[in-house]
Each structure stands twice: as C-alpha cells, then as structure tokens.
Hints:
- The chain is α/β, with parallel strands linked by helices.
- The strands form 3 sheets. The chain has an 8-stranded mixed sheet with strand order 8-9-10-7-11-12-13-14. It has a 6-stranded parallel sheet with strand order 3-2-1-4-5-6, sandwiched between helices. The chain has a 6-stranded parallel sheet with strand order 17-16-15-18-19-20, sandwiched between helices.
- It is globular and about 70 Å long.
- The protein starts with a strand and ends in a 16-residue tail after the last strand.
Amino acid sequence: MNRPVRVVVVGMGWAGREIWLPRLTQHPAFEVMAVVDPVAGPADSGVPLLGDVAEIEPGTVDLAVVAVPNHLHADIAEELLLRGIPVFLEKPVCLTSAEAGRLAEAERAGGAVLLAGSASRYRADVRALYERASAVGRIRHIDVSWVRARGVPDSGGWFTQAQLSGGGALVDLGWHLLDSIAPILGPAALTQVVGTSSDDFVNTSGARAGWRDGPEAAGAGAGGGDVEDTARGFLVTEDGVSVALRASWASHEARDVTLIRVEGSAGVVSLRCTFGFSPNREGGSDLTFTSDGETAPVPFEAERIGAEYDRQLDELPGLLGEPAMTGRAVADALRNIGVIERLYACARQNVPNDDATGEYRMDRRITGLTGNTPVVGPLEHPRSVVVFDLDGVLVDSTEVMREAFSIAYAEVVGEGPAPFAEYNRHLGRYFPDIMRIMDLPLEMEEPFVRESYRMAHLVPLFDGVPEMLHTLRERGIRLAVATGKSGPRARSLLSQLGVLDLFDHVIGSDEIARPKPAPDIVLKALELLGADPDSAVMVGDAVTDIASAHAAGVAALAALWGETDEPALLAAAPDAVLQKPGDLLALWPAGALG
C-alpha cells in the first residue's frame, strides 16, 4: 500500500482519546478519516465525527481501531469484520470463549483480518527479555505480576461493573500479563489453572487511579463495584512449565510494579519495570540474567513511556497485508480468555456467598459449571447437534495405539521404552503436532498409521456407545465426529465397527487448517451441519477437546469413561461431565423433542 492507511477510531474513552487518536493523527503511515462515538468526539481535532459504526463505508477505510468499553468489543468488531472492514481491537479481544468463536467466524465470513492490541510485546525491555530467555535452557517456571499501589480505573464507572467490563484486574491487567508471556510459553496447552480473587480495595475511594480520570468517569465515585481488584493464579502447561500470576489494581505497595521472571535449567532472566502510563512508577526498567550465583545486567535501549504503542503502529500497516495474521488474534485471545474463564470459575467456587440470595460477590458472569457432577438435565439452550471426539470417547483404542506407537518408536528412534504416557497426554491433537511437541521424528507417522490400520480390528466401541448413538438418532439429534486422526482412518474404523452411517459427517485433523485445540474442526462440523454454536455440544476426553469446543462457542462435555487424565480434564472447566455414555441422553429426554 503506497498511500497512508485510512483509519477510523471507534470509541473516545480514555484509550481512544489519550493513546490512539493522537498517535494515529501524528503518524505518517496513517490518515484518520473519522472518529465514531455516540456521545462525544475529540474537541478541536478537525476529524469528522460519526455516531455509529454503521455509518462507516467499507470502501472508504482500510482499518477500524476499536477502543470501546469491554462489553462492546466483540459486538462492534464482529459487525465491522462481517462488512469486510479490518479491525484493530484493544484488549480484551473478547470476554468469553463464545465471543472468540463469533469473531473467528466473522473474520472468515467477511474476509477481513482481525488484529489485536499487544502493546507489552513491543516494549524494548520485554523484547530484550524474550531474546535473553533463549539462554535460560529448558523453561521451568515463570513469575508474572502487575501490582499497582492505587490504580482502580474509573472507580464506580464501567470498569468496575462486571456486566460492562467482564471482570476486574484479571481482565484488565491480567490480559496484558498473559499476552506478554505467550511468546515464552509457546503453543503448549494449559492443563491446570487454579486461582483466587479478592475485592479489598475496589470500593475504596483512596484506591482510585486519579491519573485516568476522564469524561467517562464523570460523576463516578467509589462504591458499587462488583469485580475483583486482585486476582492470583497458578497455571501448568502440558509440558510441565508452571506460571504464578498476580494482577492487582490496588495494594499496600508504595509503587506500581510489573515483574516478569523466567526460570530455566541454565539460568534466570528477570525484568522489573512498570507497564502502562501510571506516574507512580519505578524509576526505570531493570533487566538481569542470573546463572551459577552470578547476576549481570542485560542491556537494552531506554525509551519514553508509551513508546511501545508507537512501535506497534510502525508495524501495523505491514500486518494488514500479511496472510499469516488471519486467525492469529483469535487464537491468542482464546488462550487468554480460556485462562481467565477457568481462573474465575475456580475463584468463584471459593468465594463466600454475599447475602441470603446465594449469589457470589464476584465473577457473576461465570454460571452453570457443573464441576464433577454428571449431566442430569437439559442445558440452558436446546441442542440438536452432538460433535464427538473419537479415541477415548466412542472407541477404546488405547491398547492398539500403545502397540502401534511402540512399534513406530522402535523402527524410527531405536531401542528404549517408547514414551507412550507422554504421547497419551497430548491425545486430541494431530499426530504430527504431537511429534513436534515431544521432539520426536515426524517419520514415526508412517509406521504408526500402518500399524493402526493393521490392528484396527482389535479396537472396540465402548460399552453403551452403540445404544447411545442409536437413541440419539431416534430422537432426531444430528451427529458428527471431529478427531485428531486423519479423516480416512477415522471413517475406515467407524465403517469397520458398523456405525459410520449414524454420523452425518466425520472430520479428521488433516482436513482442516488448524487442528485442536484451535476451533477449526468444530466450526467445520457446524458449517457442514448448517448449525449454530448454541445448538451444539461437543463430547471429548482431552483438554484439547474442551479448548476447541469453547473456542468455537460450543458447550463442552467431558467424557470420563476412558483412560483420561481426569484432574486435568476437570481443570479445563468443561460445561458438564459425563460418567458413562448414557448420561448424554439426559439432555434429550424421551419425547422431549416430539
């Protein structure tokens, strides 16, 4: 693109007014065509003011920068994407996994890319930390925190109202923290998420972030907030890396401090600084590397406060035309919101009741989780579609997979015990992806597939599965399979077992762009069935199944009758749990659909 990027700024709250509009106006790579705000525009800016995004003509702009209150992020971004207008969306990109699924579908349907604000990754000190983290060896643990002394934003305004913000410090500061460590963690799934939250300061007038006061806070005062001011979490990835996270709007500290500490087998790299624009900050950034008892400073270029936003704008025009960016913002958002949802769910279980109504004081948006209780009745919305995982849900293939994996390992790698237990923890993913995660040769796929075909006659259906499938069909439920296997292998096995005709579609991981835990395979099933996410459930026995379902906006049911890692599966926060195949039928009692 030879001309400047034509951009509109949607939302004139603090971020739009103080961060994006001034920088876009001054940047030579952008031309601000208009601002959109139903209440008020920027004073004396000379930029045309629109009252609604519907007034934006798709052919007249190249990008919409969306910086509105949290609860409007997904709705406005979805509307713009469906009209073919690329979107740069401030964090949080979404407030639920279901919203992320909607954004993914809008991006595909409209043919326009969704980009996301990831300012922390553009800081010079954080980029230096990323580079130095390569020297710590195998990563074992990460400490990441952002603790403000007094920094509750717009206390009494929308930031502290769960219905409008989606959450408190975890959604606000925690999103930045999760975003900042994502390049260090890589693609490994988070198998465990636990945490707590508290609200000691959110309704205290002295904890308010006065430096953020603006028109949207006019008339707001302390009190009435129903979100947390502090969240603490502990996360564990599938490859054993642990993460301790803390996000606090207010505390007993004297200064606002951000800490990222990466501990590895060969050393520790640690960054102490202050994210954001608060004037109550550390004197500067301190980045060090420690190994064998010796600590040394790591040099990086000093920069002014807010330079990361300028740097992000420098790179934004190039990202607009990069095909690889399609789907990336949603994938990153799914990981972040997945952690946030699971942490809120855990915190909610441990917060005392507020009053006689039985409501919890915080996290009111998290409802309906059944813990480890079997399904006993219909879900909130009527469902007419079931998408099943295959291995461990419909078929008991563990022993055949174990034997096929051992033979493939012996042929390609050589002597020694095959690490099947580790392989089993990654089930649900596509075989080549598992090989990459385990750092095993991709050449193992050929003998593994060969042996799986050879022994397919030894794979049975689980007890109760045939009866469940036939009953679901009799009750008018449409069925699909979304498996980590290749499509031909899955269809061959189901045909051999005599149940292939019971499924409307069987989709393998080789038939979509991104296998689980991405939502692609579930969304493909819905597309083929002509179904909406609200009309479907997915039944899976792996963390990747739960993540894929939630990413697609589909209710996720955990199947516990196979050889699954039950603690990890329950920690993934399924919407309900099935102890045996027949439990699924309780969603559609006999005669309920007639």
